[in-house]
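pasting for the record
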Amino acid sequence: MFILSFLRALGRYLQLMGRTFAVPERWRMFLRSYLREMAQLGVDSIGIVLLISFFIGAVICIQIKLNIQSAWMPLWVSGYVTREIMLLEFSSSIMCLILAGKVGSNIASELGTMRTSQQIDALEIMGVNPASFLILPKIAGLVTMIPLLVIFSTVAGFVGAYATAYVGHIITPSDLTAGLQHDFTQWFFWMGVIKSLFFAFIISSVSAFFGYTVEGGSQEVGKASTNAVVSSSMLILFSDLFLTQLLS
């Protein structure tokens, strides 16, 4: 029963994506929607990304310094571990999990409300492809903004680590700088960016699917938002496993 439900949902998702990636009928309207979605889904998320990344970077540096580093380890270990965690997992994978809750629920609830209020049906009556008109700008906007959010997250994490050095005096700034620079591999940064592009597509497309296919009233919109966040988070975790193995 579960397998049949999954296959049925997968088929509907693929059909919806086929309609979504049709050529826009009016490029001017598409570009206008694209810029609006970049601001709504990406720019509006910068604040929470910076805030969370700042404190996570600070906490990682403190935890490594107090609980792991010992007299047998070099003094730059805390900075090195902080950099690796921020680049390899947090700024890409964990941050996208957080954005799945904020952005994914936003997309699902917006499209679900439009479905229940019959706005999507009105677009179909007017001969407009609602899937391409509503969903494609959201996917393109989030995929465009995700690399910038990853960069902001990484920088904010490093700033948080330096805050522990200058304010909390947990580690000296010179030791932290030495750790951040030690044996740096540029590919780790690009690997996080590449993974985040896949995660952005998962968040936007899966959330749009649950919102677009809502059946019922306002209560179903809330369920669709919850299902969108849960499904997006699970798919991000599964894809993170395979992408990490593939790109490493």
